[in-house]
Specification:
alpha/beta, Rossmann fold, nine-stranded mixed beta sheet, seven-stranded mixed beta sheet, 24 helices, 23 strands, elongated
Length: 646
């Protein structure tokens, strides 16, 4: 019955609703005039005055409907009424009170109490405004208690929470029933007609309203504060979503009611250190900057941050046509490109193409290089050994040598924690690339440096989007090993620190970023399941929703990653950047290893290539058999027409 009433209220034609409001005011305006007489004289029916001034009743109704119509009151939708509509009622009440005073006193009627217009205006505002508040409240009460919309709780009773509550009440999907807030001063107060509760009372609200979803409306909270909130919510296995950050809301990129899934950075609770402007601009401002691998996860973010520092030219070098198209299209819309004259140069090509790389440096007089082009996926490089060596080692050598020959000011290699005591070909190639750069840094005018860090959130192949998709499909969520851990950092934070570290380079530096504490991947999977509103299915909880399966370590995969090879490490001017002292491979040995790798490729002998990497890279101990998909284990048969690395 109540749901039918709600549907009928909403489905009435706009013209019908307008005439209902007019009819209500036709009744309330004369009632307000009668009430003014009754209150002034203390009589329920002041017959003498009503008989004498009877003509005021129909006249004030006609004038009142005209005034309210001109003020736009009948164009307002009652269930969405806000401050403007109530201001129109205030104005209308004042105008009608003045008109009543004019009719009585300008026409020189005697015996008309001077307080009647004032009382009339106050009563009229109360009746006209109060009737609309009652209708709006009645509709919201029906929506909250008799609706098919999902009941939700909003965490955060501030302005963002109030805006979100208002938007959801008028939407079609969710209906807010209560607020939670960590501020004790707000407990038991009412916001948008809903009570603010202590977060510890969530279990009671879940039982009372059948809550399955909590919406975080704390856009100003720090990462640490958001993590504390998520820790409070985790035990309840309810779906947690968040509103966008305040900068996105203020800039117009998002609105407060655009709900998002909880990001991993919220679970980590890492608050990034603001960038040092002097370090950030040192190698970029009014310079020509080259970013290789510009379409990749790190490369594209480097490009976004580089343009903010005001280079004269940004050269985007990328072998993926689609990746290059995406980042160029995005940067073309960037305000620094549109209004500050930053020139974009999108170039397709491989970093292994020495001739093309040399042309880039000669044509554009590059000052600073951020070398992010690399194959980074451990299992894929295990299956494609020579392409990993070619792209990661030889590609780095080609770009670094071209930078040195052209006299570029800075060259920064993006490295990885997997280069430390590697157990896979990818990590070994990245460490060998570091050694190539270390060698070139000796007696060079170009300042070469390397920046080493762990996993970045949201990069291609990251576990977070994989877990989210597996949860969406209903599981299982696959984790390789119950004890596997990884370091994590956001892409913007990593890119910012790379730029700042590069500015501190003195030649041959290996910088290590402070990645915080390692995260246990199985714990990450469990938290993502629970914050999506599901229970983890285990032997102890066989009725759970989603199971975590352990698939076993993949070829070349380590249980944990490290950032330092030795113990020699020192601080820098930045609290999140350290300088490592890694040993340098002699020049003759390095060239011998590169020649040997080239010969192994000519023979398509991946096993020999991996053996050479073991000898060249200290601490490299493969933890799986060779799985190269083309050469086969130990095959040494020559392949006609194969090219070498040179």
């Amino acid at each position: 019955m109540r749901r039918k009433l709600q549907r009928r209220m909403v489905s009435l034609r706009r013209s019908h609703k307008k005439w209902i409001m007019v009819a209500a005011d036709v009744v309330m305006i004369p009632v307000a005039l009668w009430a003014a007489w009754a209150l002034r004289l203390g009589q329920w029916w002041p017959q003498f005055y009503i008989e004498r001034f009877w003509w005021l009743f129909p006249l004030i109704v006609l004038i009142g409907i005209f005034v309210f119509a001109r003020l736009g009151l009948y164009r307002a939708i009652v269930r969405f009424m806000g401050g403007q509509a109530f201001l129109a009622i205030v104005k209308g009440s004042v105008v009608l009170a003045l008109i009543l005073w004019s009719l009585a006193f300008v026409a020189r009627y005697t015996g008309f109490p001077r307080s009647i217009p004032i009382i009339f205006g106050l009563v009229l505002f109360t009746l006209v405004g109060g009737s609309r508040i009652l209708v709006r409240s009645f509709y919201q009460w029906l929506s909250r208690h008799y609706t098919n919309k999902e009941p939700v709780v909003i965490f955060g009773a501030g302005s963002a929470g109030a805006q979100l509550g208002s938007a959801l009440q008028n939407g079609r999907e969710f209906i807010p029933v209560a607020f939670l807030d960590s501020n004790p001063a707000l407990w038991r107060l009412s916001v948008q007609g809903m009570v603010v509760y202590n977060p510890n009372e969530l279990e009671t609200l879940i039982s009372q309203f059948g809550i399955k979803r909590v919406l975080l409306a704390v856009p100003n909270a720090t990462k640490k504060q958001r993590k504390a909130i998520l820790d409070q919510l985790e035990p309840f296995s309810i779906h947690v979503q968040t509103t966008p950050s305040m900068p996105d809301i203020v800039s117009g990129k998002a609105s407060v009611d655009q709900l998002q899934e909880v990001e991993l950075e919220d679970l980590l609770g890492r608050d990034p250190v603001p960038a040092n402007a002097a370090l950030f601009n040192a190698c970029i401002h009014e310079k020509v900057v080259l970013v290789t691998g510009a379409g990749g996860s790190i490369g594209s973010e480097l490009c976004r941050q580089v343009v903010k520092a005001g280079p004269t030219t940004l050269v985007l070098f990328e072998q993926s046509e689609f990746g290059l198209y995406q980042i160029e299209s995005e940067l073309k819309r960037n305000e620094h490109v549109l209004f500050h004259g930053v020139q974009l140069v999108p170039l397709l090509g491989s970093v292994c193409n020495a001739h093309r790389i040399k042309e880039v440096f000669e044509r554009y007089k590059v000052n600073t290089v951020y070398h992010a082009a690399a194959y980074k996926h451990v299992p894929l490089v295990e299956h494609n050994v020579f392409e990993g060596i070619r792209n990661n080692v030889i590609g780095t050598k080609v770009v670094a040598e071209a930078a040195k020959e052209a006299g570029a000011g800075h060259f920064v290699l993006i490295s990885t924690d997997k280069a430390v005591r590697p157990t896979n070909v990818m990590g070994a190639t990245k460490r060998l690339a570091e050694m190539v750069v270390q060698h070139l840094a000796v007696e060079s005018d170009t300042l070469f440096s390397m920046v080493r860090f762990g996993n970045v959130l949201g990069s291609s192949g990251s576990v977070v989007p994989l877990f989210r998709e597996q949860i969406r499909r209903g599981g299982p969520v696959t984790v390789t090993h119950p004890d596997i851990t990884r370091f994590f950092m956001t892409i913007p934070e990593a890119a910012s620190l790379v730029v700042q570290a590069g500015a501190m380079g003195q030649g041959g530096d290996v910088f290590v970023l402070d990645m915080g504490k390692p995260v246990k991947i199985v714990d990450l999977a469990r938290r993502m399941i629970e914050l999506s509103g599901f229970e983890v299915k285990t032997e102890e909880q066989p009725e759970g929703d989603i199971e975590i399966e352990f698939s076993g370590l993949r070829p070349g995969e380590k249980l944990y990653e490290e950032l330092l090879i030795g113990e020699a490490v020192s601080g820098t001017d930045h609290p999140k950047i350290m300088r490592a002292n890694e040993e340098l491979l002699p020049k003759a040995e390095l060239h011998a290893f590169l020649e040997a790798l080239s010969a192994a490729e000519g023979q398509q002998d991946a096993l020999s290539a991996r053996d050479i990497l073991e000898k060249a890279v200290k601490g490299f101990k493969p933890n799986s058999p060779l799985v190269d998909l083309l050469s086969g284990v130990g095959e040494k048969a020559p392949v006609e027409g194969k090219t070498s690395f040179h």
